[in-house]
Specification:
The chain is of the alpha+beta class and 194 residues long. It contains six helices and eight strands. A hairpin with a 6-residue loop joins strand 1 (3-13) and strand 2. The two termini are 25 Å apart.
Length: 194
């Protein structure tokens, strides 16, 4: 299977899950985004490394990197290789110069380690199709009275009551406004109808 290179686009606090964050990965040479809900600890670890903040004591991911390097083990790449029931799975491809190993990992931990090791992150087309969100360059204008413009739509809204055309417009609006958790819920409702 051909791999798709991903890069970190951003991270935001999850309004739908307390203490969780949405990590947004994007195709390196494409318009699709992959929103992944991660825990607070992993979000903090990723943010600290992205911002190059030095902590007084090593975080768990820093400790793992130091331990691995002490035994000449490098992570060459991370692959998000599975998406099942809303959960992403990943593997670390490691090498000690003589032997290559594939190690199962939570996706959030794999991303935190990929940043520290400076290695690429990949996924497969099947995962982008199943869980990705397409970012459009040219967004259509919305009509007055359209639910996209109605800011009174609460976060907990069930999107099952909206027509498919409105859902597609709401999805684009949520992406434009970087409301990725909402976009994921709308995307899931659209997929249920197909």
């Amino acid at each position: 299977m051909e791999k798709i290179r991903l890069e970190i686009i951003g991270m935001s606090y999850s309004q739908s899950q307390s203490g969780a964050y949405a990590l947004i990965l994007g195709e390196k040479d494409g318009k699709r985004r992959l929103p992944i809900i991660i825990g607070g600890f992993e979000a903090q670890s990723i943010a600290i490394e992205l911002e190059k903040i030095k902590t007084p004591r090593p975080l768990t991911h820093d400790l793992f990197k130091t331990f691995a390097e002490s035994f000449d083990i490098r992570i060459s790449e991370v692959i998000i290789n599975k998406f099942s029931e809303g959960v992403f799975y990943a593997v670390l491809l490691c090498s000690n110069g003589k032997k290559e190993m594939e190690i199962d990992s939570r996706t959030s931990d794999a991303i935190a380690l990929a940043i520290r090791f400076g290695c690429p992150v990949y996924t497969y087309e099947s995962i982008m199709v199943a869980a990705g969100i397409l970012m459009e360059e040219d967004q259509e204008n919305t009509k007055p009275g359209n639910p996209i413009e109605d800011e009174s739509v609460p976060e907990e809204t069930s999107f099952s009551e909206y027509p498919l055309e409105d859902l597609n417009q709401m999805l684009q609006s949520a992406i434009e406004n970087e409301e990725y958790e909402k976009a994921v819920r709308i995307r899931d409702e659209i997929k249920k109808r197909k």
